[in-house]
Design goal:
Layout: E1 2-3, H1 7-25, H2 31-41, E2 44-45, E3 50-51, E4 55-57, E5 63-65, E6 69-71, E7 75-78, E8 83-85, E9 89-91, E10 96-98, E11 100-101, H3 106-109, E12 113-116, E13 119-121, E14 126-127, E15 132-133, E16 138-139, E17 144-145, E18 150-151, E19 159-162, E20 167-171
Parallel strand pairs: 2-5, 3-6, 4-7, 5-8, 6-9, 7-10, 8-13, 9-14, 10-15, 13-16, 14-17, 15-18, 17-19
Antiparallel strand pairs: 1-12, 11-12, 19-20
């Protein structure tokens, strides 16, 4: 549990929002600027990161990206807990990744305290447009998440899953 109104967390979010604003206002031709912003925003980022603005995150320093990661337009990562993303990962437009969550109990919610659970996404994953990845989820490598899916549970390697809630559709063979 944490208090999102803690002054240090507010300052950290402000830093991330300023960097996201700079990224979102940059032009496609400003590749060096985008690269600098990405290196400053994220904890770690491999080579060939492409983010189509707008992109938003809470803190940035809790996000680790492998190489060859692509975010299409309007992606959001709420990252008060770690988000680890492997290599060769594609995010469709409007994908949302949430580590943050609130207590189920109304009494506990009234305290204003929140909690977060880490998310891990393996390599060679494609997350279809509009998908939502919920707190605490691990997605296996070489997996495809169908557009509009709500991922509430761990997903194994080498499968196609889709729906709300996200369910197994079939195994994938390369």
């Amino acid at each position: 549990m944490y208090d999102a109104t803690d002054p240090e967390l507010i300052a950290d979010r402000r830093r991330a929002r300023n960097l996201c604003k700079s990224l979102n206002e940059s032009r496609d031709s400003e590749l060096e600027l985008r690269e600098r912003i990405i290196r400053e925003l994220f904890s770690a980022a491999g080579d060939a990161i492409w983010i189509e603005p707008p992109f938003y995150c809470d803190y940035g320093f809790n996000i680790t990206l492998g190489s060859n990661v692509f975010f299409n337009f309007n992606c959001v990562i709420l990252d008060p807990a770690p988000v680890i993303i492997g290599n060769n990962v594609l995010f469709g437009p409007g994908v949302q990744v949430y580590t943050a969550t609130h207590p189920i109990s109304a009494t506990d919610r009234r305290t204003g305290r929140e909690f977060a659970q880490p998310i891990e996404i393996g390599s060679d994953v494609w997350v279809g447009g509009g998908a939502i990845i919920c707190p605490g989820v691990c997605i296996g490598s070489r997996t495809v998440i169908g557009a509009g899916s709500v991922v509430t549970n761990d997903i194994p390697n080498d499968v196609f899953v889709a729906g709300n809630p996200c369910k197994f559709i079939r195994y994938l063979n390369d």
